[in-house]
Design a protein that fits this description.
binds fe (ii) ion; Naphthalene 1,2-dioxygenase Alpha Subunit, Chain A, domain 1; Rieske Iron-sulfur Protein; binds FE2/S2 (inorganic) cluster; about 25% strand; globular; alpha+beta; 2 domains; 7-stranded antiparallel β-sheet
Length: about 375
């Protein structure tokens, strides 16, 4: 008979258990303690040591192809926007007005300047304050003193990354070992076709871990993509990397999605039906396939909710073949497919979160197919420990 766990653990003990599993060999590793997903002390540590320190992904550079295009995002408590300037450069700024802290832009769109909806202070897309009415009697007021704080941004193979940490190593350096795998797909040419934001009732790490393992595909996704992926083709990196993990898997050649279009002239051999699935720690995860790419970018909302940004882009040869109503129909079918996949995932990750609150919940053993969860434990333990 299994001994029930003896109640809440102090944060230090949760971290000690995380360290023990991270340090164990994979064939002895355990899943993380249930309270890693619920403890307020862990969430506070993550704010200080993960969310304000690491690179996060707000979307594709191709989401903002034209001057004036912008998307909004957040880093911890800080709303930000990312915009393409008139010079074609992508920059990121605090989305908080320097007058009296109004959040300015919402969602995504195109604008030649940022106008605060409260008193109409107006900023250029390079963050400079250009207009501030009725400030002539405010002694010493100088618009140059009230520019929007600029945020570090880096574009890597079509992805935008942002961080509040001036000392974080560059994305290009951190992901150097991933670069050859991703570069062959020419992801920077893919065309975004869908983007959605959702809030799910689970801890962000449970959704991240769910993405990282294909063990659940035949069961949780049996109605969608579960049957297309022969699990014995799954490969993992030779050694753990500090900033990311990934797996590589082959799709059956008759899969509806995940195989190269006949006009794709750069992928050869097995790569025409092989996908790379990186997780860039902490929370950017994607499936990069020869014909499409879909991603998740996660941000916690407290321990029990996660903000999910979900997006899909398709290879240019797939995009250009489809025109007019045919493209609309194909897109509707693709969106419906991913909505179904997401719903299957939401069900399980909300289910595990509910389970993690049970008195009898306990860590279990990991399969070799959960290798990336073990890599994630190493990352978490390194950051939080
Ligand atoms: S808060 Fe933005 S103009 Fe006043
Ligand atoms: Fe899934």
């Amino acid at each position: 008979m299994t001994t029930p766990p003896s109640g809440p653990l102090p944060t230090s003990e949760i971290l000690a258990q995380l360290r023990a599993s991270a340090d164990a060999p994979l064939n002895r590793a355990m899943s993380s303690h249930p309270q890693l997903y619920r403890d307020p002390g862990i969430a506070a540590l993550e704010d200080a040591k993960i969310w304000s320190q690491d690179w996060l992904c707000p979307g594709f550079a191709a989401d903002i192809p034209n001057p004036g295009d912008y998307i909004t995002f957040s880093i911890g408590p800080d709303p930000i926007f990312i915009a393409r300037g008139q010079d074609g450069e992508i920059r990121a700024f605090s989305n908080i007005c320097r007058h009296r802290m109004m959040v300015m832009l919402q969602g995504s769109g195109n604008a030649s300047k940022v106008v605060c909806p409260y008193h109409a202070w107006t900023y250029d897309l390079d963050g400079k304050l250009r207009g501030a009415g009725h400030m002539e009697r405010s002694t010493g007021f100088n618009k140059d003193d009230h520019c929007l704080p600029e945020i570090r941004v880096e574009v890597w193979h079509g992805w935008i990354y942002v961080t509040l940490n001036p000392d974080a190593p560059s994305v290009a350096d951190s992901l150097m070992a991933l670069e050859p795998l991703v570069a062959q797909f020419k992801l920077g040419d893919y065309i975004p076709v869908a983007s959605q934001d959702h809030v799910w009732d689970t801890n962000w790490k449970l959704l991240a871990e769910n993405f990282m393992e294909s063990y659940h595909l035949p069961t949780a996704h049996k109605a969608t993509l579960g049957g297309w992926l022969p699990l014995d083709t799954v490969e993992f990196p030779d050694r753990p990397h500090a900033a990311f993990t990934h797996q590589i898997f082959e799709k059956l050649p008759d899969s509806t999605y995940g195989v190269a279009h006949r006009d794709n002239d750069h992928l050869v051999g097995r790569w025409r039906h092989t996908s790379v699935m990186p997780t860039v720690f902490p929370s950017h995860m994607y499936v990069l396939a020869p014909d499409h790419c879909w991603y998740l970018s996660l941000r916690p909302q407290g321990a029990g909710q996660v903000h999910v940004r979900f997006g899909v882009a398709i290879a240019p040869e797939v995009h250009s073949e489809l025109q007019g109503p045919e493209r609309d129909a194909w897109m509707a079918e693709l969106n419906q497919f991913f909505d179904h996949v997401n719903e299957e995932d939401r069900l399980v990750v909300e289910g595990i979160y509910a389970g993690s609150g049970a008195g009898l919940a306990a860590a279990g053993r990991l399969s070799w197919l959960e290798r990336e969860i073990h890599d994630f434990q190493k990352y978490l333990s390194g950051r939080l420990g």
